[in-house]
Amino acid sequence: MIAMSDKENGDLEERAIDILRQYKDGVLQSELWKTLGISSREGSRLVLRLIRRGVVRREEVTVNGRRTYKLYAVKAGAPTFSIKVDVSSILDIPCAACPRLSECGAGGYYDPSTCPLLEAWLKKEIAKLRVQRVQTAS
């Protein structure tokens, strides 16, 4: 198998984006492969690169009883979401060291909604947040 160069990949990506932009109702991935003249393997890799770049999104659909994906170009300037997670806020959560963790679940004998250790931890975290809010307001 001959590997594509970065330039060839880039050209292929731009061609794919141009095709997807022409169809606001989306394009079935198999149709994109055919239009580009590439295999499904190459097409899958192409789409994953485009999704990672944030220029394409895909939606699972069923066509003639078979599951496939419909591809859509993401409009330039479309909002992107970034969630920053501070792990320090959950480092001391009691669940991490709980011997019943594997048995815990909503509606079960060990249920997070009735766990006294989790409740105490949540109250402590809420108190910390209130103190921080008061300090920032001052």
TrEMBL record:
Superkingdom of origin organism: Archaea
Name listed for the protein in its UniProt record: B-block binding subunit of TFIIIC domain-containing protein
